[in-house]
């Protein structure tokens, strides 16, 4: 009994509560979103099923200690690379019965009998976090005396780990997930200990390049089409983001999203009270449902819940004494934070539409399982390090 009691005490119940609250928000929002005539299936039951699978993933995650994740990181990374290569080399077809279907011009999913669609890039996110965490922590263990050369070598190592999955995901093509990978790499690079003499010029240069490409996409798209061979249809998202009123068809989704959130005003229209029609609102545009039915108050509470999660992860990163664990936390924080800002930003025209879901709330099995796997590693960090990481009992893991 005493041993069972100790095991229960070592579980991060604060994180359990956060996940449970996300589960409630997700099911309530999806339940309302799927009432439109366009849907012929119960997405709430499916989402609850995927949450159940996610809980199982977390349970299995607790079987491994953080040091074991460190040892397995390259194997998991390699497994993710194999899955991504499989999407590229496998025969593609437009039918839903084949292994790798082509949907909307993208080849991002495997169709598995009984399991439905599985998107490997969603699992690549936690895999690349583990791999980069090992690269950084191993580098610092071997290099005791930091120099400009050693820091530059670490940056090259991180770039090599990132560029392979990034290139494979871009080949699908999947711009949204590619951006998430870039943000994960950027966030982990910032906390890697690399000198700012390298990081500052690098980030400034990338910002200038990104700003230049965005400016060309808006004002001179013909240059990108001619010299970079970018397909013309890729500029539709930029054009509809800047001026959705001028694109009746392409900009309908964004206009409807803004109208939905705006019509919710302060307190919203209540559960099932939505009036604005918005296609596929249960996936990437679930926040529009929350904004319309629960208004500014409800939307703010959901955003606050994400802040609580990020705060909890940040506290874990600060309190842990293992460098590998710290970098894992930094990667997960970068991933979730970007997902939230990008998803909510695209529903209110602050950012372009990229098809990035709202973590733990949008419907989607692969996305949810990938996020649960990432949190599973966090659970492991807190489970195995809760008692002996700190010198006093007052410094243990608490909110």
From TrEMBL:
* Biological process annotations from GO: cell division; regulation of cell shape
**InterPro entries found in the cross-reference section:** FtsW/RodA
Keyword Chaperone among UniProt keywords:
no
By its UniProt entry, which Pfam families does this protein fall under?
Answer: FTSW_RODA_SPOVE (PF01098)
The answer to whether the entry has keyword Transmembrane is yes
> Where would you find this protein in the cell?
Membrane
Q: Give the transmembrane region(s).
A: 13-31, 43-62, 74-94, 152-169, 175-191, 198-219, 294-312, 324-341, 361-384
- Reading the lineage from the top rank, the first entry is Bacteria
Question: How the protein sits in the membrane?
Answer: Multi-pass membrane protein
Q: Which GO terms describe its molecular function?
A: lipid-linked peptidoglycan transporter activity
Alphabetically sorted, this entry's keywords are: Cell shape, Membrane, Transmembrane, Transmembrane helix
Q: Name one GO cellular component term.
A: plasma membrane
Name of the protein: Rod shape-determining protein RodA
